[in-house]
């Protein structure tokens, strides 16, 4: 340690030697000496084998990443195809159900139309048979009737009055009523009446056919 004491110091006064001074240039370490103490960093040295191995590793990594991308693209494509296929199947099922429903509705409409067209003729054929079956049961009781009134279509009045005459009915009053369906009739006498009115039932059935159609 250097002695900076001076003989002319005055008490209470600070002098330069009272403070730390920078180290003289001669005492500073030499930059060359510092560099000599630092470890030397050498650039990496690669052999041809190292370079070949690195090239192969890079190629393998690239192929691996490419395969992964192909797998992902394939999965994405399969998912898209499955989705489109399901949508197409759903659409086809809906269209098929709609077609089947329309065919069923059209077939039912045609069937009902045919039944409605055949019903009047069927009613006419069956009406006469049913009429005769009903008359066979009630005519024997009509012979006790007085002043029997008959209402029936014009082409059946004579047939009905003839049956009543054969049964022993003495007095018959015939009235043509063409509003009655074939096979329908209406007998009335003071004590009661008997009738067959299948025509009104047939009209209700035909109306239902039209409603369904």
TrEMBL record:
Compositionally biased residues, Basic and acidic residues: 29-40, 52-64
Annotated region described as Disordered, given as residue ranges: 20-64
Superkingdom of the source species: Bacteria
Protein name: Flagellar assembly protein FliH/Type III secretion system HrpE domain-containing protein
UniProt organism field: Gluconobacter thailandicus
């Amino acid at each position: 340690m250097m002695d900076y004491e001076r003989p002319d110091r005055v008490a209470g006064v600070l002098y330069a030697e009272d403070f730390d001074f920078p180290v003289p240039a001669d005492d500073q370490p030499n930059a060359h000496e510092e560099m000599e103490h630092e470890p030397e960093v050498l650039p990496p040295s690669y052999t041809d084998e190292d370079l070949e191995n690195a090239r192969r590793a890079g190629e393998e990594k690239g192929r691996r990443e490419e395969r992964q991308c192909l797998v992902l693209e394939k999965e994405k494509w399969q998912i898209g195809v499955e989705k489109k296929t399901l949508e197409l199947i759903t659409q086809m099922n809906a269209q098929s159900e709609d077609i089947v429903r329309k065919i069923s509705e059209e077939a039912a409409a045609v069937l009902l139309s045919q039944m409605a067209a055949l019903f009047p003729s069927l009613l006419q054929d069956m009406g006469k048979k049913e009429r005769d079956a009903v008359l066979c049961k009630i005519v024997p009781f009509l012979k006790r009737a007085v002043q029997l009134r008959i209402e029936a279509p014009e082409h059946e009045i004579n047939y009905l009055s003839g049956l009543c005459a054969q049964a022993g009915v003495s007095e018959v009053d015939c009235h043509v009523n063409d509003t009655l369906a074939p096979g329908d009739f209406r007998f009335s006498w003071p004590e009661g009446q008997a009738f067959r009115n299948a025509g009104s039932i047939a009209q209700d059935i035909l109306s239902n056919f039209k409603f369904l159609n």
